[in-house]
Amino acid sequence: MVRGLADEEAGSLASEGKAIVWIDGGLHATEVAPAQHIIQLTYDLLTDDSQKIKKILDEVIAMLVLPNPDGMDMVAEWYKSNLGTPYETSRLPWLYQKYIGHDNNRDSFMLSVSEMQNINQVVNHEWYPHIFYNHHQTSPFPSLIFVPPDCEPTNPNLHPLLLRWQNFIGTAIALAFESEGKQGVISRFLFDTWYPGYVTQVCDFHNIISTFSETFLYSYATPYFYTVGDFPEEYKDFTISLFFTNPWEGGWWHLRDAVEYCLTSSKAVLDLAAKHREELLYAKYAMGKETMERYQKEPPYGWIIPLEQRDSPAAAQLINKLITLDLEVYQAESSFQADGLSHPKGTYILPTSQPFGRFLKTLFEIQTYPDLRQYPSLWQSIVEPIKLKVPPLRTYDVLGWTLPLQMGVKTVTMNTPLDIKLKRIKMASPPKAKISGSAHYAYVIPYKTNNSVIAINRLLKEGADVIWARESFRAEEKTFSPGAVIVPLSTFNLTKMKKLAEELSLQVLRIKRPPSIKTYKLKLPRVALYKPWRSNMDEGWTRLILENHEFPYTSVHNAEIKAGRLENRFDVIILPNQGMNSIINGHPKGTMPPKFVGGISRSGVRNLRLFVENGGTLVTLGASSNLLVEEFNLPVKNVLTSLKSEEFFASGLLIKVAFDQNHPIAYGMPEEAAGFFAHSPTFQTLPVLKEQEQPLVVGKYPEENIVLSGWMLGEKYLQNRAAVVEVPFGKGKIILLGFRVQHRGQTVGTFKLLFNSLFYGAIAKK
Length: 766
Fold this sequence. Notes:
The protein has 21 helices and 35 strands. By secondary structure, the protein is α/β, with parallel strands linked by helices.
């Protein structure tokens, strides 16, 4: 720990301790070489009696980890089932993590799945390694392995000492390859450090020097012979560069070759840790100390999370995630003022002056993404920087992610130091449940929290009558907004309601008479979720979110949609984010075993159309909206379809969306919220002849100040355009959710748009 240590004490401890080095493989289970090398590396460390290995064993604690064993089993079984057939190297048709597949690496600050929770527990609560080495596959062809230094942009909150250590480790790895005469090592290409959601980035912000590599492999365990003809044009003359000093010239490449490359790099990291053990241990202390001292003297001094929140359980969820990630969270022991605002006792305080304060800062602040075209001197490794007139240069992942915005949690930045008594907490709790009033007609549950959605599902499963208020109303001197949940006492007794309220932190009022308003009577929606044979991560995230909020659902594949009669089984069908061509055509013939070839086909499109015409509801997430816009000839168009990248660029950021709070799809939403936008369809509604067929805009982008966090080129194309649209269609309806309302389980503040669509979708048109 950093707190309470003097430099001399830290130096003494560093001289006595061992360097702890985490090395993993197989987090992405289709990346098979890194996992295989872990087994060989374990054997080598136990049997090699060389002085080099002895020194490693004396100075280093090596943690050798297979972080996704279930996924590795799935991949091995798939590969063996196709070995020796034309489909030997075909893609896995399902996710190799139950819910999120390849996105497990992007779940490292949200911790939604068990694999990432386990890594966090071991790394940030039990072992606290000094180096974290995360093996991946595959290197950009025709290189054979990528190692740091990384490319731009660099996250501005990374500690400079950490960045220098990463470059040092990467150089040591590359030197080991050159010493062994192994070709094809590349650096400073393709992979950047901007997004903090990777497992390595979360380690970086815990003052753990992370490194990663990408080792080349053809596919699974199948070898391949490469000729220069396979190479991209720019690599065919084998020109060397500072970060690609010894190009590979082709030939056979086997699984064993890739394993050997992983072994060389892992042993180089262990060797460096053994040689620089004391410096590594002290560096971790030094980074924490510098961070604490810096943010005692300069803003942001931290963040305040007020007690008054639209969704208090979501605020508690955010705080508890931070605590789980080993960040320090405090509560004020008295009322106080900060930057002219008054706050009560118990207010949550998150100071930046803590050992991992840079992590807090990168999660909470607004991201300002650098347009790399404007900073050629920072990244161009050439004699004279050139101003590029090209489309924007993308980051490897998203541009803006400010977590409180995504979760709909109000925070206040501390621009001046706070001098009050604080108490560190181990867990945050939302306000205690309360059932007020003594009237005997019905309970009323406000609809601002996501927990109220869980309450509806539990009530419906228990057989209670659940009424949705279509208008605002007053009862017992309180005002309720549209979407408020009314439950007659005669259908759900007080004992059960008390239990429900306590478990979900509900604020319940008993009222004496029915309000004079229009209402909907809800039923448990019969939900189908389209599950393609293309291992769609958005489908997996949707499954996880539905289960977490206790929606029953049925996964349907291409065959069920092509079979038709969907309205007999389902009220609502969800199409996750997926391209139109991919949904219709799926995998081409010859690329997969026949069972997994193709998509829903044109017959499936017709059946979806019939489903809606006969009273069903289709809900589209992101890109799948284009299928219905194009194939159903809707009076809606995607205004971004024909734009070029030099005109419009938005590969993942948070933008402002305004909602019609009187429409059922937006019940319980604030007037404005942050939406996650990534290549998202944006709609313009078109005139129609019949009033009852007119599309209804439920959410739209404002006229100005659209970007909340991140960066966008071409903001003008979104001004006053629709983001969420209901389109009446036959006896049913289509709900187009253009932006990513449930992106990676992070966008808690917009989950309700999906949930409302399901409840509303099950209500028959009158």
